[in-house]
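Quick look at the format.
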Amino acid sequence: MTIVSEFKAFVARGNVLDLAIGVIIGGAFATITKSITDDLIMPVVGWLFGGVDFSSYFVRLGPIPAGFRGSPDSYVDLKSAGVAMFGWGQFLTVVVNFLILAFIIFLLMKGVNRLLLSHLREKEAEAAITSEEVLLLRQIRDSLQASPKL
């Protein structure tokens, strides 16, 4: 088997396509979650803490380069200039974003598991009914075989 045919067999199994679809949807979903965090949750949290923008909290670790144009209090300006910083506010925003995404995925998986479990129970119920029918038919067969023949 050549490497091309092995690759075709690998792709044709469906797992790769499912994974690709999951990555694409996950990427789109991540942008929605980022927007929820950046545009809805963190502004409310900042408002609750007195108008604080968490993404602007950082500790500058390195010197500001000569010829720097921008605000020395701006995380974005300093980061684009290559200044070493400990951006704990931005990290906090990313952690909140992750927690939201993880919770939503948890809820999705919980729903999917519930659907799969109900489907499995239906299959087991059908199998039990079939088993009872088979047992009844076997009993009828055995009764007929044991009865005297005419």
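Next, a different chain entirely:
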Amino acid sequence: MARPREFNEEAVLEAAVQCFWRFGYEATSVKDLTERTGLTAASLYNAYGDKRGLFRAALDRYANGSIGNRIRRCEALPPLEAIHAFFDDILRRSLTDRQHKGCMLVNSALEIAPHDAEFQKVIAGVLARIESFFLGCIEAGQANGTITQSVSAEVLARHLLGVLMGVRVLARVRPEKALLKGVIAPALAQLAPPDVQSN
């Protein structure tokens, strides 16, 4: 029978998320993690195996928390409004991120996924979840007439995913409101039915 954790796992994982998110996987040392989590190196290894194991747990927490919570909030809204709310939240977070951390998932996709098959699969799965959210909203919006049917739902969902990735990368180096809105606005305008676009 597994021994219960002798520490607050929620607090430890949140501290690890913040550390990896700010510095990236490679630049984060075990010393950084012990200082920020309050765990000894021995406790960290006993609980998570190694730095990689703790990173996997931190990435899961980020995906289920930050990303999962955003999707759940937006899914409660009408389809087109849900997509707008999703990007409004991304824009707000990007502009108020004083450390220019960007998105931990996107950062990991750029830093780790090209060289690590396991994390490539994990990150691709989360991106598929976001794409599925967009697809569900678009299909519902096309069904009720609030989103254009002139482009397939699959194409629109993939386009929105690409826009999201671009915004999150741009926000790390040029977190400028006009720039980021200029990327998002045309993508959202493309969703409107032709009669709305022409008005």
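Residues 77-197 form a domain with the Tetracycline Repressor; domain 2 fold (CATH 1.10.357.10).

See the schema section for token definitions.
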